[in-house]
Design a protein that fits this description.
Shape: flat
Order of helices and strands: HHH
Distance between the termini: 53 Å
Strand content: under 5%
């Protein structure tokens, strides 16, 4: 398989992955997507977001309560 064959294969693989993802997302009901994160996880994420905001000079916006 030459270079063009690889490009065609990769494009078909990418399209198949996108289609599979769309099918999977459409099969989920609303209650399956509604997550309840633990307070411990929320604290860790808040620290991580603040750390990245400082590191990359981004404005920190309170995404988590």
């Amino acid at each position: 398989m030459g270079r063009n064959g690889n490009m065609i294969f990769e494009e078909r693989l990418r399209l198949a992955a996108m289609e599979a993802d769309a099918i999977r997302m459409n099969s989920l009901s609303d209650n399956q997507v509604n997550w309840e994160f633990s307070p411990r996880f929320q604290r860790k994420m808040k620290r991580l977001i603040k750390k990245w905001a400082v590191r990359y000079s981004l404005p920190y916006i309170g995404l988590l309560p």
